[in-house]
Amino acid sequence: MSDRIRSNQPGRTDRPSHRLWSWMFLFCLFLTVGICGCKSRTTDSTSAGDEGAPVAASGGSTSKSKIIPVRRDVKSLDGNWVMVVTVKGRDNYIWLVQLKKDAAGYLQGEMIDTYNDKLDPKVVSTTVDGNSVNLKLKNNIASIEFEGAFDGIAIRGTLANGPQEIYVGRLLPTDAVNLKDYAADALPPAADVFMKAIQGMQKEPQPKVILALAREHRTSPIALEAVFSLLAMNSQIGFDDATLREIAAQYIDLAKIWGHKMHVQAEFVVAQHLVNRLPGDCLKHLDEVDRMAGEKAVVLKSRVQMFRDEAVVQLSLAKSRSKSEADRKAAHEELQEGLKKQPFNAEILQALGDYCIANKQTEGAIEYYSSIVALPMLEYLLLARRAGQPAGDPTPTQILTNLWTEQHKNADGLPEYLAKLHRDRLAALRNEIRSAGPAALPDDVGDHTVLVEFFTGGQMPQAVATEVGIDVLREVYPPSKVVTLRFHQHIPGPDGLVNQDGEDRLAFYEVAKVPLLVLDGAAMDPDRVPFGGFLQASQNVYNILRTVVDARLKQSTAIRLDLSGKIENGDLSITANVTGATDEQLSTLRLRMALAEEVVDASMPNGIRDHAMVVREMPGGARGIAPKKGELKFSFSMPVTDLQQHVSEYMSRYEAGNKIEMPATMKPAIRGPLYLVGWVQNDKLDNDHPEIGRAILQSAIVSIQGTMPEQATEGKAKVESATRTTTPTTPPAPALPE
After folding, report:
1. Fewest CB atoms within 10 Å of the CB: 5, 207, 350, 542?
2. What is the pLDDT of residues 500-538, one digit of tens each?
């Protein structure tokens, strides 16, 4: 958050073309109204009018693709109600709840049917006060609360299973007694009207058309999502201040329809989207969040404070550009305080550095600009702000080089200084994260070794926080408890640490994006668990990792994995033997292994220099070794020089096929030390519990005895890091988030 880019600053006149605006708007809004495909047993029929209007099935459909019928002219809350939750532009019909008076005359809720909900939800309490309805439910893993109010057509409100997971939900009256005869999901009311309007906006951006439609169909969840899309696109489109404020106000107005929780969330969402553009307005919305949330909203309040700090910084940054010398001096003092809270805020560092330059404080300017150049992604974030502006201004690297040369008479020593600063600052960050995180679990908590697979790319900006979080995890837990592996990918651009086995391993999980975390065979969903980001997100990523890893560490298993590996007389030999698996388990188990280099020094475009436990090859292949004759074991030997040869041949084919040549600093030779990692994985998915993925039952790691001979490295010569042999240059920029 603190390093977020302000793509539309006051005074800027550049704007995307109408054609680009139209494409972005159509993509975002089409996604909102659910154009991206349907699940089975769905219909795209939708009412253009009120919630209670009759809806027919789409042409040629069977009875099972009809939307559940809705009663009209409801006078009482007694009867059956279908719970509809809107997620990503689609109405999902999940539960059928009956409200019925008990012996004392009070309405009580009862779950009478669910759509494929294996968590067995039950209504545990019901509170009805006039038109307000509160249902508390519990399933096998969580407590859920619905808060809504009846408006004569539907009970509109929110469904929440925690302070951060809040969804728009509504109870619709129905005479249906089950869900199995009806569609599982459909488009919300008026979705067709919004789609028609969007299709008519391809030539000219007209946000006020969407705002007008949202007012007309304000009770449809699609209206709330459509206005949110306008709000979210401001960073790319750049609405004028008046339009942006109108969008924000209408979004909050629509959120109020869905109750208190959605109103609070909307105030916070608006504050997030205004923090860089209209920081004063942002603070007003954060004040409203504090007033409405109450003292119990501890998690929300910590996030509010984070954005409050950012808004204050943005106000100080604006002051630093003032024509008044007194304002600039005051801003410099304010930003020095702000840097203590946001040490990786590139805008603060640049403003402080520029003030030092203007006041002939060369050492201070070098200090601030060195942080920008040395730390991952900070310089790229600043350069991204220049998109669309005339070229010619020096880059932070060029400014720093000039400052260093002015101070030292030449550029000698700058590369080494930046490399040391990079490593020292990241080491300090890891120490802070460890201190702020939970204590490690005791050694005897379980006998399961957790495997963390990290799929990353050297040009992926959002991988930076995950890189740091995983390195902290390695420092907290010994490899006997947690093993981490990095599989590099050519995503979003070329990466010199990729190999064919790593690409095949990612394909095994049927995912084509990075960063991706897979813990014991279960891929973490980035849409639900935010495990990516820049440096300032590292603490959050680590805390998320610890939650999942600690839960897995408590597992026990009878499976054991014995590994050995050595380099002797020029040959690399490894063995692996699995014991403790039952005959029933063996049929679906696979043994997989990886040869990982302890730390690879490779300067990547996303700013990461040191890469721990990089997989160089998977002996036996990514498909794994199947059991034979009731045994699961493997032995292998090859000339150690083949390891480098395999990597080099793959990279040569990749570069030739793509007509590129990566710098040597991005594809260093294998030097070791090497480790052998093995794991036993169930390759059969559990259809009843798909969230567990392809479960890894046990893992192990051993160091490869012996050292890599000099002739094993490519070209029989060490490839030194550019940070030690060349002056700093700006490598190709990674693909920045749009």
Report:
1. 5
2. 999 999 999 998 889 999 999 999 877 667 778 999 999
Q: How many CB atoms lie within 10 A of CB 17?
A: 8
Give 416-443 pLDDT, tens digit per residue. Answer: 999 999 999 999 999 999 999 999 999 8
C-alpha span between 367 and 698 (Å, rounded): 47
Strand partners, 631: 628
Interatomic CA distance for residues 251 and 244, integer angstroms = 11
CA–CA distance, 66 with 77 (Å, rounded to integer)? 24
Q: Which is it for strands 79-87 and 42-43: parallel, antiparallel or unpaired?
A: unpaired
Find the helix packing angle between 464-476 and 538-553, rounded to 10°: 40
pTM of the full structure:
0.76
Q: Which two tokens stand for residue 691?
A: 């969230």
Cα–Cα distance for residue pair 678/680, rounded to 1 Å: 7
Q: For residue 102, what are its two tokens? A: 């008990």
Contacts 24+ apart (CB under 8 A), 621-625: 621/501, 621/504, 622/501, 622/504, 622/505, 622/508, 622/592, 623/504, 623/508, 623/590, 624/590, 624/591, 624/592, 624/681, 624/683, 625/590, 625/591, 625/592
Buried b (16+ CB within 10 A) or exposed e, 667-680: bbbbbbebbbbbbb
Distance CA 186, CA 175 (A): 19
pLDDT of residue 62: 41
Give the DSSP per-residue string, 298-354. HHHHHHHHHHHHHHHHHHHHHHHT-S-HHHHHHHHHHHHHHHHH-TT-HHHHHHHHH
- Residues 95 and 698: their CA atoms lie apart, in Å, by 38
Is-contact 217 190, C-beta < 8 A?
yes
400, 412 Cβ separation under 8 angstroms = no
**Alpha-carbon distances of 47 from 21, 41, 145, 193, 638, rounded to whole Å:** 29, 18, 28, 9, 67
The two tokens of residue 353 are 């550095």
- Residues 6 or more apart whose CB falls under 8 angstroms from that of 505 comprise 453, 455, 487, 615, 618, 622
Helix (H) or strand (E) holding 501: helix 500-508
Count CB neighbours of 259 within 10 A. 20
The per-residue pLDDT for range 32-71, each reduced to its tens digit, is 443 333 344 444 444 434 564 444 333 333 445 688 999 9
- Partners of 633 in the β-ladder: 577
The length of the chain is 738
**Pairing of β 482-488 and β 450-456:** parallel
Phi, psi of 63, rounded to the nearest 5 degrees? -60, -30
For the residues of 268-282, what is the DSSP string, one character each? Answer: HHHHHHHTTT-HHHH
Its sign, for the CA torsion 33, 35, 39, 41, is positive
Q: CA separation (Å) from 160 to 131, 178, 547, 615, 716?
A: 20, 24, 21, 41, 61
Distance between CA atoms of 662 and 720, rounded to whole angstroms?
A: 15
Sign of CA dihedral 533, 534, 540, 545: positive
Cα R_g (the chain), whole angstroms: 29
Q: Which residues are bridge partners to 516 per DSSP?
A: 455
Looking at per-residue confidence, does 90 or 687 come out higher?
90
Q: Which residues pair with 217 in a beta bridge?
A: none
